[in-house]
Fold this protein.
Amino acid sequence: MSAAQGDHYIRVDMTKQEATAVPFPEKWRVLGGRALSARILLEECNPKCDPLGPENILVLAPGVVSGTSAPTSGRLSVGCKSPLTNAIKEANVGGNPGQDLMKLGYRCIVVTGRPADREKRWGLEVDEKGVRLVSADQHKGLWNYALCEKLYERYPKNASFISVGPAGEMCLSGASVACTDTEGRPARHAGRGGVGAVMGSKCLKWVSVDSGKRPVRAPAHRKEFTSYAKDYTKAYREGELFFKYGTSAVVPVANMLNTFPYRNRTEGQSPDVGTLDGKNIVASFEERGGGMHNCMTGCIVQCSNIVHDKDGEYKTSALEFETLTLLGSNCGVKSWEDVADFDRLCDELGLDTIETGAAIAVYMDSGGLEWGDVEGMHRLFQEIAQGTELGKAIGNGAAAVGRLRNHARVPVVKGQALPAWDPRPLKATGVTYATSPMGADHTAGLIINPGLKPDEYAQASQEIQIINAAVDSSGFCQFLQPTLTDLAHYYSHYLGDEVTPQKIADMGWQCLQDEWAFNDGAGWTLDDDDLPDVMKKEGVGPDHSLVFDVPKEVILQARTQRFAPRDSLFNTKAAG
């Protein structure tokens, strides 16, 4: 029997409060993660549905090779119709739940419906005995860390959890879905697009996954798979380790490139770059403890930093570049330690740090709070937790704050806030923001190359969107940077069938096609594939001369014209 045959997936009907395991369809055999989520949503979800209504579908899908011995391959895709963009969404997350689900032979969890009693809370248990919905009323309103402490009193220490905090329960559009890391901390978040609000709308507070002593999944061609994984790991570790100290280390480079947004993107550089630089976090390890670690079992990237406070007590992980930018520089905050506090609060409440930082910056820009007012920002988090009108607006994201404050400077695409990487100096990334089915999302296709020529923008954006869709479908971490050929080797050895690099590229393209088709059904058109006027009219850099000035016809090429993949996309890291 080849790998993946005999697998099941879990269907959860929240209306009937039923959870069942059913055979995984053969037609989805080569699909996982993002591609599987997109296909399920396209086939089963009404694209015109209310994102917070019973018709929306929540998909929790590990990648195809998650749960195997392949390095850094256990990521989980969280998919649904987004309440933030009113379009399809996939948010990718690390931690251990994706691996544990696959070890149990579950290719995904599909959550439909909504309970009649919206005040009750439910948990989903997944283990070797099967799947069950259980009451979670006792966990209602708990913040993520306190929730996981309670859950570990009930479940084994090697179990992993997927959960939402109060923001998800309140169905705030900036809400995230948390996954526990190797230490059992709910510090890994599927942040973008408000996926936590959809999980919360279904009154599903948490999912526990206990794989017991199940071994890693066995590939069809065990010897070849193991050999390739070994060669790949060796090549990665002998190469340039870009993420040795996490993404926070890129702060100085981003500032130099005018993509370290300051004060709601009115500037591309921050005067506080020195005190927000990730090197300060690394320097703190010697005195306070903490350090770099792997967020999931089998990770060889180890980009996650564990941040301790001045007393040597755990505060948060991982404090990443995006968070230092959006909750730091973009709000005029000067100290990385203050940003660490806000990062922990976002993880506790279950909020996307990008969307929350952008929302607070819009509030500051509109005169609601002084730039860099750290105490005022703490009060805003209290408002979010209390569910006040202002708190809900902040929790619903930048566009919601713009509407509340009647403020025009709101850097969003399809309702979702721009990430740290700015489209004005990085114009090919701007093409991704405009054309991606996900809206403004750097994980959809980031290109850090300000030297590209205008006639290269569309192809560069399309290629990276295809690769990232394929990687997000595989279970691998994007930071591992596998090529199409690497993915083809892993798929072939694992499934027992020949999967060519071109087929991997085609699957990535088909994933995008499925997502665009969903968005078309939701009412989005090619006219909406654009960036806001603030990115076109207000510049950054020397003399504020860098604006997003890519012609619309060039933007649309990334979506409407299939380019032939270049040879560089087929290189491989491994020798096999």
